[in-house]
Amino acid sequence: MKEVVINIFQLFHTYSQNYALMGVTTVPQTESVFKMKKFRIIFVTMLLLAFGKSFAQSIQVTPGTDLPTEVIACGDQETFKFRVYGPTVADEKIEVQLPSESEYISLVSPASGVSVDDTDLKKPIFNIVSALASPSNFIDIEYSVLTGCTIVLDPELTHTLVSNPTINKTVDYPTVQYSVLEVNSNIVPSSASLNVNDTQNFTFTIGNDPVSTNAYSSNIYAYITHSTNVEVTYTGTGTFISGSPSGGMVTNIIALTSADIATVGDNDNKFEKNESIDITIAAKLLGCPAGGGETISYRAGYGACIAASSPCLTGNTSTSGIALASGAPELYTEVVKRAWPSPSNSDTAEFLLRNDGTGAGDIYNLSFDLGFSNGGAVYTPSDFTSYSWSNFSVNGNTVANSGAQGSETSFQFATDPDGAGVGLEDLDGDGFFDDLPVGNSFTLTNELTYNYLVDTANDTACDPMYRGYAIVRWAHEYQDQCGETTTLDVPMSNSESWRPWSFYNMQHSSLIENSSTGSSNLVAGSTFDFQIEQRSNASISTLNIAGLYWEVHYTIPAGVIPNGNGTWGGQPFNLVSFNAGTGLAIYTSNSAPANYRNNLAYDPIIPLQVDPACAGSFVGSIDYEYHLKGDATYEPIDLCGTGPTFTVSCGSPGPSVCVSNFSLDRTTFGFTDNTETTSVTAATTGIRTDHVLEGDMVRWHLEVDVSENNLVTLDALLEYDTKDWFGTQGDGGIKALRVEYQPAGGGASTVSTNLSQYSYTANNAGKTNHKVDLRGGDFTLTNPSIGARYIIDVDLKVSEDASFTDTAFESLTGILASSPATSLLNPTVHTCNYLTEELGMLEYYDTLRTDLRQQSTTFDGCDVIDTGARFSVARFSKIGDLFPNEFRNIAHLKQVDILVPIGVDYVPGSSLQNTYPNQTNQPIADPIITYNFEPGFNKYSWVNPGNWTRGKATVSWGIKEVKFQVVPNCNVSNWSYSGERFGISILPTSEMEYFRNVTNPGRIVNPARRDIPRPTQYIPLSYTLSSATPTVSTETNAAIWDVQINNTSSGGGILNNTWLAIDVPNNNIVPTLWIGATQIPLTGYGTGKYWAQIGFVSAVGLNLEIRSDNFTVCDTDTFNVTVGQNCASYPTDPDTGYPVTGGSGNYICNTETIPLTLTTQEPSINVGTTLGIPPATYDFCSIVPYEVSVNNAANGYAYALSADIRFPIGMTLDNTTGILNYNGTAYTVDPAQVSHNVATNTYTVDISGITSPISGTNGLPGVSAVASNEFELTFDTSFDCDYVSGSKIGTQMNGESSCGDPIDPSQGQSEIKTNPVNVTQVPSNIQYAMTVTSDDNTLQACSQTEVIDVEIINQGVTTDGSIESIVATIDDAFNYVSGSFVTGTNGPAGAPAVTVNAVTGKRELTWTMPNGIASGSSISFSFEVEVVSPGDVSCTDYDLNVSTRVQQSIDCSATGGATCPAINSITSQEDEPITVEKSTLSISSTTVNSTVNGVNLDITAGFSLENTSLIDLASGTVVSAYNDVNNNGSYDPSDVLLGSKTVATAIAAGNTINDTIDFSVAMARGCNVLLVVNTSNNNCICDTAETGMVCNSDLNLTKVTNNSNPNQGDNIIFTLTVTNNGTSVPTNIVVKDIIPTDFTYNHPNYTTTQGSATFSALREFVWDLGGFALPIGDSISLTYTVTVDNCGEFINQAEITNSSLNDPDSTPNNGN
Q: Cross-referenced InterPro entries, in alphabetical order (predicted)?
């Protein structure tokens, strides 16, 4: 039988009775304060009517007497007591059910007669050995209990007689006082910046701030949570428990016992209110943080004092942060000693390596690699096999080297090579001393060998030595503390690099000069100089190797002899020896000063003389070779060449024909300046006629003197090398010929211009010949004799498109003029003499030569790069400007089109047009840029608007340039040239325009496309982003994060155009950005997105703060901080990227992003309330103070505080008496801050509105704050006539956390029972035990009544019906069943009076207490209740409360109070739960029949209703159809009612009925219908039942052909028809037809009225009807035609592959 509680009113007797004052104390936040205890004193009574027994049996527990007023969670054990009344049998057992967070410890008393089964510590069973004979016999049992730390709301303690469970007693568990341990948010330090493997101590403070001063904890648990990248150690008091990694996180625990706690506070073993303990841990950073930094979180707990329980975590989580220490490695290298190996001896080099990094910039795993570069910036470790490195050592300790030519070492020293704290160290513990701390340095020594392998015979072969720049270069590689690798080629620098052995600019030529004849036509005794013009340079090494010098060996033709010592760059160049037989003359530079001897840059000049005794004429040249001397083993021979041709005439051996007055001169000239107004002539000063341009006219002038008779043949011959100087025109370039014959002795001359006498042979035995026949043509009949003369002038045109392989200014070589002849006397061809001449030609490039104009081979960070495109119209000449005194041909660029890698951005306004040699830099407009013209390239285009300066095209180095500047952008690593670096591509659409002799029309010349990469080194910018406070745990409405931009660029590079973005995904944090005290404006660029342009970040980095005092983060949220940088510009915004010029798009750069976290610390509001001033009593007529004590036991501030004080009926709060006491100061409460809800008698006090330090946005501080975290609020209260003594006062503190989140309602609660009023003549010993039971504790709402049995045992004085009553209270949806009252033993006289309480709304049944019932007697009766409003109750439990009450008249008029005829006090009460039952239904959709009615469907929907409960359901069930408006498949109030059906039949329990409902719905919504049985119009069901209406279609597909037996080649027609045989209207129908390969379908020959068809390569013909709705009963068709290709039997199969509706008898797209 279940218990039912009934209130019994007891009217006051007139005799005197004293009430014991019930003490009132404060409680923790989730506990009630002194609720009225439920006296469930249960008697097994034999009622005369029901049981036939007259004795009682009960268990009695008196709270406050038998139980402690309060217990301390996980504190000391407390003693509990209960009394058992007889009669009982021997070994009677009492089971005590403790709350879940308590456990039995031991039996205290009696010492004997009671045993305990404590198998279950939460449910001990006490065995009473001896029987208790009668109701007057009893036994008291005491036992000890320990209470756990987990908060249990409203805990109870139940005592049950095992033999008769109806005999039980449940009372409230004593008030539990809980500790509130909190880690102070002020961790010391709050953050730290560490190097990897560094350790930092963090100290945190744990305090205890419970609401009660009595609360304490006997142990402490400190939880330290961090990532596996941090190692935490602890050496202090207590036990350190290392946690196991889980998900990358570790939680360590420090456990302090009571003995450990004894050192804290007052030195006892209790951690009490306002005591604190400091704990210091050591945190080691094991690696670089994956995000912005590491967070260590701290939280405190206590407890774990009962079996199988865990410590209770309390308070908030506090945090400290670790950031990676800023700084960057910077390896400085310097050449201490350069190596100068000779060809036979190696030499040592010394390199200083020093870490000039900052902060945390230690270098790890250093390696060093030596190599060379050939004049560029790219380090090449292995391309010069002429050199090798060896014998690497540090401080005399050798270290292995490897790699190409032994150039690499990784410093794998097993021991320290240079001493601790000096140079290399083992910082990372890998066993190798290959790490270099900041500030440390060491010297690396190694040996360089020059591998010039000449054969040991020292033969005379001209073996070329190494030619090139061969500059020593080196690279280093290392890692920083995060393992990031830096590989850097050391930038080329003259101060750091050297060329150990090489030659460069290896160009040399020779010439005849300072001739005594004034030309290269020499005679006996002529003197002349032979000069080797050097453009070669020796390496610095040859200048640093002692004893090296040069010998030049000249081979001089016979007839020429040395004429003394020469000069070597103006210094002595002495003749060593001359061998007349071989012609070998040896000159030495050893005679020159030491700093001249081995330098190839000097031109050697030797004086020569034609032997005065020479005979005959000859053509000669001089061979030469350089010999390097001074090395013990080798004598390299290099720079071998042959000098120019010269002629020597030493008299004639016999008759012949001689030539004279030979000239080869230009006859076309330019202007004096670029105005083109004044022409120059050959007579103009400074004009050189021996320099010509392509297309110029040249006159060959020669005079032939006849000194022999009887000539048979005679020619004028011009010879030179084999190049086509004139020959590309086919006629040898001849444009005019004039030959004048002057006979001997005078007479008339004969002149011929007959070109047929001229002939041209391009290559005649290695010579090009121009020949004029002087005995043929017009001179056939002329018979010249001695003394006759021929004067010859031939006008030749220089070739305009010569086939020279390297077009440049060149001299014709081997020019000779002669007059070969035969005669009758001497029929052999013979020549009297030769004459030579000089002629040089500047030939333009038909296809422009192009090059990259780049000033720097090293790009450093954001340095601006000067670059450009160079176009050469002529090549460098040692002679310089060939036409210095005349303005000849000009050229200018008309258009320049180049490709530039996307890794750089153009610098606006930087374009210049430049003409050489006068370096005219003309600003020009910016190019038109076409982005991504080719993958990886942008196209730059400049077009000459006509004002670009024209430049001479006749200079020796005719160059036109467009120069501009670029700056690296974030794609700088993408240079676009594989294996190289930066460069450009010149496109063939570029144009150069030549103007011939100025006035001639221009000629456009285009270059060939040329990709021109240049070995270039980029020293990148780098940076990291970190935060020492990645997780900010704030207790207020403000938060600050430290953010560091760490510039890790090598060489101190500056980060240009740096920006920072903040992305708050949940848009719940409004940030601000600060540098020191300066706020940086943030710009929004999307929801929750902000960014700022920061500017430059120097090498030292930048520290910023992100702040927010505007956020709605509750608990924890994360946002991202991103930093970007680009040398070129800022982005449009961080999402859009960087704009390209002209607005044609954007590009994206790499960025650094870290997450930052905000954790808002919650407040923890604890409330204690007191009525009156304990321990004094108060009188009903008195003014009684009511105090609310509040503290905030967590770190988080509490805002918007208010108190809801719910008084019982009959109590009044005086809003004019309010006082707020805070930190020792009283603040008056304005009555306006107090509102009153009369209906509930609740007073709401706006605490934040009271003028005080905690008002407004200040909030109530948490325990970590310096300011006080508690206050008291007091008001005066009074009583009126409706007051019931023992009623409860409830107080609820409301508030918000810093994020605006409401405080958990379970916090801030206090509920106390009002103290009994101290009045006179009230009995002091009215006491009842009550049992209330119902039949089965269930009541069917629509068809049943429930019998309630009440038994009351009088355990006090004799009853007095004049002042006592019995009251049963229940929800007003229930009522007393008239006539159901049955009295029992000593029962009330009749049926109850039934009323509804106007205030509570509860229904009250009141009986007068039977009079004169003696102590120990029982009172019993029964009655029935029923549900009178089924719609107002739900299927849940309702409490029926039965109480006994006394009533008293009070007169307070003497004190100005009320006079009350009847004041009620509750003397005992008991509750009985009654479960309301109703039927439960399930509904399912069975059938659907629909017809189209315009745009609607008229539907008859079948459904099935099943009664799944055990309760019959009467007829009248309402079924409704709804349009599921939001298509969520579930009924909600927004759905539209379509129709309802009331079921006419009843539904028995477990049965099912079927029925239909009719309604109309829009056609498009026919499949969005719900069938619902709603509780709102079905009062007799528990829950709403619903189902989606079935929505099916029945589609039928047919396929026919017009010819099932076609012939090959016939066209046949297929017809597909889809029919809707269903009851709903489908859409999205798709039909697929597989056409056999033996048919040809010619798309799109199909016909249909709906949809479209496609034909795929898979031979799938797909007919898609789209949104077409096929009406019920309608069909739609499509026809298409195919051609039969082959013979045979074929199956053409089609199927429906999709439909919006289910088809119950088919499955779409299943291949059938």
A: DUF11_rpt, OmcB-like_DUF11
Whole-angstrom distance, CA of residue 600 vs CA of residue 502: 11
Nearest to 1426 by CA among 1367, 1349, 1510, 1370: 1370
Using DSSP bridges, classify how beta strands 623-629 and 549-555 pair: parallel, antiparallel or unpaired: antiparallel
pLDDT reading at 425 higher than 50 = yes
Alpha-helical runs (H) found in 379-451: none
Tokens of 208: 């205890």
* Domain CATH number, residue 949: 2.60.40
Domain termination residue (choose one: 1413, 1446, 1472): 1472
Q: Give the per-residue pLDDT at 404.
A: 65
Q: Is residue 1022 part of a domain?
A: no
Together in a domain, 1416 and 1549: no
Quote the number of domains for the chain. 11
Same domain, 401 and 344: yes
Whether residues 859 and 1002 share a domain: the answer is yes
| CA-based R_g, the chain, Å | 57
Instruction: Return the structure tokens found at 674.
Output: 């670029």
Is the Cβ–Cβ distance between 1629 and 1585 less than 8 Å? no
Domain boundary among 306, 324, 342: 324
**What domain range is 247 assigned to?**
181-324
In a domain, 689, yes or no: yes
Cβ(1595)–Cβ(1703) under 8 Å? yes
- What is the C-alpha to C-alpha distance for residues 373 and 473, in angstroms, rounded to an integer? 6
Name every residue whose Cβ is closer than 8 Å to that of residue 592 and which is 6 or more positions away in sequence.
Answer: 549, 568, 569, 571, 572, 573, 602
**Cα–Cα separations (whole angstroms), residue 1250 to 241, 1190, 1293:** 48, 15, 15
* Confidence band, pLDDT 50/70/90 cuts, at residue 1673: confident
Q: Residue 404: which CATH number?
A: 2.60.40.10
Q: Does residue 1144 carry a pLDDT above 70?
A: no
495: confidence class by pLDDT, cuts 50, 70, 90: low
Token pair 């289910």 in the structure block, residue: 1702
**Which tokens in the block code for residue 1297?**
């956390």
Is 972 a member of any domain?
Answer: yes
Q: Which CATH number goes with the domain that contains 1568?
A: 2.60.40.1240
Please name which of 1353, 1330, 1414 lies closest in space to residue 55, comparing C-alpha atoms: 1353
One-letter amino acid at 781 equals L
Q: What is the pLDDT of residues 1089-1116, one digit of tens each?
A: 999 999 999 888 899 999 998 888 888 8
Taking the chain, what is the end-to-end CA distance rounded to the nearest angstrom? 66
**Least confident piece of the model among 49-58, 141-150, 177-186, 1586-1595:** 49-58
Per-residue HEC secondary structure of 745-774 comes to CCCCCEEECCHHHEEEECCCCCCEEEEEEC
DSSP state of 258: H
pLDDT beyond 70 at 726: yes
Residue 5 tokens, joined: 């509680």
Name the average pLDDT for the chain.
84
Closest CA to 254 of 203, 211, 323: 203
Whole-number pLDDT of residue 496: 67
Q: Where are the extended beta strands (E) located within 543-634?
A: 549-555, 560-562, 566-568, 571-579, 584-588, 604-610, 616-620, 623-629
Element containing residue 1599 per DSSP (H, E): strand 1595-1601
Q: Is the separation of the CB atoms in 1563 and 1495 below 8 Å?
A: yes
Residue 1032: closest CA among 939, 1161, 1182: 1161
Residue with tokens 């609607």: 1496
pLDDT of 38 strictly over 50: no
How far is it, in rounded angstroms, from Cα 1579 to Cα 328? 77
Instruction: Give the integer Cα–Cα distance in Å for 714 and 777.
Output: 12
CATH number of 1426's domain: 2.60.40.1510
Going by pLDDT thresholds of 50, 70 and 90, the confidence category of residue 959 is confident
Residue whose token pair is 């054969």? 455
Q: Is residue 10 part of a domain?
A: no
CATH of the domain at 62: 2.60.40.290
